[in-house]
Design goal:
This protein is mostly beta strands. Among the domains are: 1-32 and 364-385 and 414-543, no CATH class; 161-196 and 209-331, no CATH class. It is 7% helix and 53% strand. It contains four helices and 34 strands. The protein has helices at 10-15, 163-173, 177-181, 340-355, and strands spanning 28-32, 40-44, 50-55, 64-72, 78-87, 91-97, 101-107, 117-124, 130-136, 141-149, 152-159, 190-196, 202-204, 212-221, 226-234, 240-248, 253-258, 267-275, 280-288, 309-316, 319-327, 365-368, 372-374, 377-397, 403-424, 430-437, 442-443, 451-455, 458-465, 468-475, 478-487, 496-509, 512-522, 531-541. The strands form eight sheets. Strands 22, 23, 24, 25, 26 and 27 form a six-stranded antiparallel beta sheet that branches. Strand 3 and strand 4 form a beta hairpin. The longest helix has 16 residues, at 340-355. The relative contact order is 0.11.
Length: 543
């Protein structure tokens, strides 16, 4: 079989003259950093360059902190640097961008004793102009989606219960009634508001539903100039709904459709939306089998649900067509990510469940990518992860010197395991699926890590971790090239990377990516820099 090799980094250094300075260094920028920080951020803007920004550390008595923004061209030549002052209590929550602007959503920590102030910072990368639009969160909500379209910022999420309700729920949980009934004193409602970035006007769009409800996802429909929201709703022990709502740009609700599972044994979990044309919308997401009791209400688990499989449904002229479900165990690539022993056990469990007329629940936690459209087919990518902890033990002694050992768990981060990639036709038929193993990724933040690049029928899957770039080439169900690891080049030939952390990479333009992160480097041959901690970003090419 014909095999096609994609060279990463090494070929780039050999063939791209711009990647070298006169002393034969890779195209790389290093900035001095402090260990165990995540202060720097990189946003690629295609051929316009790449924007770096960071926030300075404020002292306890400072009321403001300074943000620095620097634009670099495609050859990493600095074009401009600007600074901006903001309250030190404002924390970066979300961002959005278009071709020429970056939008940052900064928000104070939610506290019922003070205003839930926010600031939307707009950076024009062409001129370097920076402005801020400030306001007060009208819904007292946790914002988890942020979109800017036609100079309007759209924010959505879930309202935050009062402190009294939170305390009441703690005592109510001691009765164990919530565990069996799913009843909760905490009331959640969808939050959806819009902010005019020119005048600062804020408009809240109320959406009151029975039981618990929240915005699961939000997408901009550029075809119809509208905002699309999926809203989850848990009412009673067996009443679980997902609504697809469409709003015009003024916030007026144009339509609301209940997405029906046609099966009371399944519950829609997460969703990604795509407008195909004026009349057709696709929804691809995940589902699970937790339809009753405590586990059916995602509000009991910080709105994070595990999944049993993938669903595909289509809405045409406001009417939902048939819906298709694919359990993860039915994906051909699923068992490829397991050890032989575990795969054997899972297959035996699947056979036993089918004999009982039940569906196996694998309970994957997944981070969904946006739907990719290619050749009238629809590609769905999701990254599997699980929370990782370690135990800390300590010993205390009573008045008689008798020891007592206790322990507690410490959250280390989210451990990524593999990515699932599946392709559907426009009727929801699964055409092929594949997988990509993810190793050495442990992160406190849930962000997508896998990037894709298309070359004819081939798909390059890649990510950056632990000072290396991992890449795999697939063609439908086939694996054209198994996972290849390429070290990220540093500035000096004698550099020894002691540690690499918080690293990531993103698609930039053409066949170029940008990788970035933090490294602790040792090099005794470099004067005054025998050890250095840096934030770096490298230009990477796939050829």
């Amino acid at each position: 079989m014909f095999r096609k090799t994609f060279f990463v980094a090494f070929l780039f250094l050999q063939s791209i003259a711009l990647a070298y300075s006169q002393d034969n260094k890779p195209m790389r920028v290093e900035l001095e950093a402090v260990s165990n920080t995540e202060n720097y951020h990189i946003i690629p803007f295609g051929r316009r360059g790449v924007l770096l920004f960071y926030q300075t550390q404020a002292s306890f008595i400072d009321q403001n902190t300074t943000w620095y923004f620097s634009l670099y061209d495609v050859n990493f030549k600095e074009i401009w640097t600007k600074q901006f002052s903001e309250s030190r209590f404002m924390k970066l929550r979300l961002f959005d961008k278009d071709e020429t602007n970056l939008y940052l959503f900064l928000q104070k920590a939610v506290n019922k004793n003070q205003k839930d102030d926010f600031s939307i910072v707009t950076i024009d990368i062409q001129s370097g102009n920076i402005k801020s639009t400030k306001g007060t969160n009208p819904d007292h909500s946790d914002v988890n989606s942020f979109e800017v379209y036609h100079n309007m910022a759209y924010c959505s999420g879930v309202t935050v219960p009062s402190k009294g309700a939170e305390i009441g729920q703690i005592f109510f949980s001691l009765t164990l009634v919530p565990l069996f009934s799913g009843i909760t004193l905490l009331k959640y409602h969808p939050s959806f508001f819009m902010v005019n970035l020119s005048g600062g006007e804020i408009k809240s769009i109320p959406e009151k539903l029975k039981g618990q409800a929240w915005v699961e996802s939000m997408e901009t429909d550029t075809i119809k100039d509208a905002m699309l929201l999926t809203i989850k709703n848990h009412v009673a022990s067996r009443q679980n709904f997902m609504f697809l709502n469409q709003y015009d740009l003024s916030g007026r609700k144009m339509s609301s459709i209940e997405l029906n599972t046609q099966d009371n044994k399944r519950k829609l979990n997460t969703a990604k939306l795509l407008s195909v044309n004026d009349s057709t919308k696709l929804v691809i997401g995940t589902y699970n089998n937790k339809v009753k009791g405590y586990g059916a209400n995602a509000a009991n688990n910080a709105f994070m649900e595990s999944s049993s499989g993938v669903f595909f449904t289509k809405v045409v002229n406001g009417i939902q067509k048939s819906i298709s479900f694919y359990n993860f165990s039915n994906l051909k690539s699923f068992y490829a990510s397991l050890t032989d022993r575990k795969a054997f056990r899972m297959k035996k469990m699947e056979i036993r469940k089918k004999a009982q007329g039940k569906e196996i629940s694998l309970n994957y936690s997944l981070l969904l990518h946006d739907i990719i459209v290619r050749n009238n087919q629809f590609i769905f990518i999701a990254e599997a992860y699980y929370p990782e902890y370690h135990n800390v033990s300590y010993t205390t002694y009573d008045a008689y010197g008798r020891p007592t050992t206790s322990s507690y768990s410490v959250f280390d981060g989210y451990r990524y395991t593999n990515a699932v990639i599946a392709c559907f036709d426009d009727e929801g038929k699964l055409l092929w699926d594949n997988s990509f193993e993810l190793t050495n990724i442990l992160s406190k933040k849930l962000d997508k890590r896998v990037e894709t690049l298309f070359d004819g029928d081939d798909i390059i899957l890649t990510y950056s971790s632990d000072g290396e770039i991992a890449s795999k080439v697939i063609r439908g169900n086939e694996v054209i090239e198994n996972t290849n690891l390429t070290p990220i080049q540093t500035n000096y030939s004698n550099d020894k990377v002691l540690s690499d952390y918080n690293s990531d990479m993103e698609y930039w333009y053409d066949t170029y990516f940008i990788s970035y992160g933090y490294q602790r480097i040792k090099n005794t041959s470099v004067e005054n820099k025998s050890k250095r901690t840096v934030f770096y970003f490298n230009k990477i090419a796939f050829n």
